[in-house]
From TrEMBL:
Entry's transmembrane regions: 20-39, 269-290, 310-341, 361-381, 434-454, 660-682, 703-732, 752-770
Protein name, entry field: ABC transporter permease
Family: Belongs to the ABC-4 integral membrane protein family. LolC/E subfamily.
Organism this protein belongs to: Chlorobaculum limnaeum
PANTHER family: LIPOPROTEIN-RELEASING SYSTEM TRANSMEMBRANE PROTEIN LOLE
Keyword Transmembrane helix: yes
Compartment(s) of residence: Cell membrane
A Gene Ontology term for the protein's cellular component: plasma membrane protein complex
Single Gene Ontology BP annotation: lipoprotein localization to outer membrane
Keywords, ordered alphabetically: Cell membrane, Membrane, Transmembrane, Transmembrane helix
Membrane topology: Multi-pass membrane protein
Keyword set includes Secreted: no
Domain ABC3 transporter permease C-terminal: 269-389, 661-777
Amino acid sequence: MRQLNRKLLRDLLHMKGQMLAVTAVVACGIAMFVSMSNVKYSLEMTRADYYSRYRFADLFMQLKRAPEFTLEAVRRIPGVATVAPRIVTNVTLDVPGLGEPATAQLVSLPDRGAPALNGVFIAEGRMIDPSRPEEVIVSKPFMKANRLKPGDHIGAVINGRWKRLVIVGSGLSPEYIYEVQPGAFFPDNRRFGIFWMNRRALESALDMTGAFNDLSLTLTHGASEKEAIRQLDRMYARYGSLGAYGRDQQVSDRFIGDEIRILGMEITVLPTIFLVVAVFLLNIVLQRLVSTQREQIAVLKANGYDDEEVGLHVLGFALAPTVAGVVLGTGFGAWLGSALLQLYGDVYNFPRLLYVFRMENALGAVLLSFAAAVGGALMAARRAVKLPPAEAMRPESPPVYRPGLLDRSPIAHRLSMPVRIILRNIERHPFKSALSVTMISLAVAILVAGRYTYDSVQRMSDVEFGSRHREDVTVIFNDAMPPSTAFSFASMKGVLESEFYREEPVRLVFGYRSRRQTLKGLQRDDGLQRLIDSHVRPRSLPEHGLLLTKTLADLLDVKPGDVLTVEFLQGARRSVEVPVAGTIDEIIGISAYLRLDELNRLAGDGGTLSAGVLKLDASQSAELYDRFKRTPGVGGIMMLQALRKSFDEMLAKSMNISTFILTSFACILAFAMIYNGARITLSERARELSSLRVLGMTKREIAVILLGEQAIFCIVAIPLGFLFGIILSVLLARALSSELYRMPLVFTPANFLFAFAVLITVAIVSGVIVGRKVVTLDMIAVLKTKE
């Protein structure tokens, strides 16, 4: 086999361009598989380690106020392992260097020792001193965004009283991996943060001595979560419970869980495309190799090499670039996975990121790549094995051609000779031509799908911050306020427009299905807050009944005309029957809307307000912000443009990197296809092209014949790639969508122009490289034949 190995090495060097192209495609597919697999597993391990080390709870419940003696009954619930009561409230802040008001969620810490559940990792500084009620630990993202450090002071309005808080440390908690303000979906770390405060100090400020308003629990292995939730709801109904829920409805865990689920989808789709193209490339390269080395194969068999040795020799042409691709792809994938994990670390708050390179992923990459290599080489290897030496020594029989559609066409004589040669060759190899077009179109599809995710998320931002919300500020009240509050805010100097809404926690029941949900009562549907569907079409509130988002209607399996049972979870806890008047396909969240006066009537309490949205005079905004910072009863402030700026910065950082990676890999895929196609055409038709040169054709005409075929493939592949890209984007939209958000189908002209420009650029570059081979074509050597 030593002679065969030398021959293999010599032939590989001779075909180095084509083999490097195959290697690059395999490396891209393996790099994607390895990097995404490792990132997915690393995120899972990082989350599991964080949850375990800092005792993340299994069940959560918020309520109005409950006495601590009720905890004994909770501990007796079968399956309950640990119970951790807390006090949690939202307050407005005056942050040094920040003109606008910020919002903090104050979370109590035990007077002594670490929290039983939802522990705090101290990233900088120290724990609070129980004897100093003004000390707080502040979440690390908020500290970083506002350039704060231990020792700095922050003003806060707690229960209507101004407090001066001292920062003694920065921290993180598994409860806030995705730190977002209640009611928002996008983080604004500069204007919202988590503050941990001594329990005694917080209960004194809120008059909550001997009581709590937030409960976390863990369950023993095998315990029934559903039964524990049922008993908790029954026990705390009288104390204003909003309903217990598990991790699957905890906002932070849902966001990181969806991210891990999305990675699992990408592991399947993208590497598969690259490996399919690698199979095709290897097949056409090796089929051509067997055709050009018929005589060499015959000599090998005549000299005693058996079928197995010849087959393995041919298979070596596939394994060599595959092995190189595996090595390069695994190494690059390991590095890329580490870099991508750091990118996730910028969005999600972990005390440490555990990057785990799994040998199982590397082994999976090896198996996938070798399966692709064998799949691509199998037909060529079988063809080489079946060649009898006597037959292989003879030149391959020329194909029998008959006049095709082009030859019978009346316009054929109007075409130039090079064009007729190109079209005739495509017509005579329809299957090969169709596969070439399909493979090139896959590169275009990846470009379209890669840009689609960017455009889709951008559309979500435009709809949410542009079309749907037109206010400047959302003022959230700590407690339900009387309707007269609206006049107080509307009369403030500098407030141009104001609207108010009410939110009530309820349980929606239809048949055996139920869901804990918030009812939102709106004053109007065409003001500062509008109802906009995924197609950016405005919708109107029904005169009577509920307007549900389509996702919520699907979860409850209801349609317009059905009647829901609405169980109010606060106040008189009424239960009423309300018809479903319609559905709306919103992009973000799941909601249930109705008119404010209708909600007040159903609640039966005379009416209250939960929050207001305001349009401000820019010249008066600074004075208004100072007033909001000290207004009692205000539990939070959301700045619309600040949220959008924060979101756009996060989007630009994450999406630009992912788009760059996908574009680079798609360029490699397109280049490999176009370059290999041109090189194989050159090797197959070298004698024909040289003959045409001898007959008087110019080098330019020969180059047109050689590269024109690939140009036609690219032209046909572009619209087909657009179609495949749309199909792939639709599949991605369905896979990436969740209860928290739905990916809208957005296909901008810039997306298709970008894919078109990239493919044309790659085609030109590969054409220039192959065109140089035509210029240096040795006509005498090519035209030599052996009799």
